[in-house]
Amino acid sequence: MEHYFMKTKKYIIANWKMNLGLAQTVSLAKEFKKKFAGFNRGEVAVCPTVLALTETAEILKGSGIKLGAQNVFWEDKGAYTGEISADMLVEAGCRYVILGHSERRKHLFENYEEIHKKIRAVVETEKLTPVVCIGESLEEKKSDRRDFVLVDQLQQALSGIDVFGEQEIIIAYEPIWAIGTGTAIEPAEAEYAHKIIKLALNDLFGMRVNNKNFRIIYGGSINPKNVKGFVNLENMDGLLVGGASLQADEFYKIAKAITKQ
Ligand code: 13P
Fold this sequence. Notes:
Elements: E1 11-15, H1 22-35, E2 43-47, H2 53-60, E3 66-69, H3 86-91, E4 96-99, H4 102-107, H5 112-125, E5 129-134, H6 138-142, H7 146-158, E6 169-173, H8 187-205, H9 207-213, E7 214-219, E8 238-241, H10 248-258
Parallel strand pairs: 1-2, 1-8, 2-3, 3-4, 4-5, 5-6, 6-7, 7-8
Helix pairs in contact: 1-2, 5-7, 7-8, 8-9
The chain binds 1,3-dihydroxyacetonephosphate.
């Protein structure tokens, strides 16, 4: 019988958002490669702009750092101007893809029906791990609807998705009100939300699949100082880092801290 607490591997994922162009991405990826040489305490991934995926893949060769994308489209191929398929991401060297980030939900009006289709397409490749973002807004938090919102988002995103074999699905709990503010939520609050997520996943997939295939990570203003509070949480499988991942040194400190046994 597998137990949740046996999942010791931590995931530390850098979301570089639309902050860096090609040349800057290449240079930061090289710094990451140097900084993380020999680091084997957890799974580290970087998610650069799609423009830089192939060059970043080249740079990361021979390092333990994995590559991720920030979005995908749900169809395989065809007349979908401007879109990129899951297979294309695999071909570019991706192992991860962030789906449904709140910035896409806000600025591009992405909804969970679309996110569901994207998860399905990603899982079908059997070669990519989706990092599915969920999280409440400030209004939802203030009106005490957080738990409902999280469960509802998970249901919409994941109901009816078949999860087989070794397929991993990472749920990133990103409270919208904590992103980019410089202040992360209290670790105890993150632990509480992760517990809600874990229970909802038990309902959707059963405990066995949940324990084996799902991971829950936190994102929102994590930095080398506040990361310490997140280290020993029971339901914490890692971090999705925005701002602090734009400095190799900061990100390395975060990765080192969260993987401390
Ligand atoms: P910050 O770490 O900049 O708050 O961003 C978090 C995030 O949105 C990661 O996806």
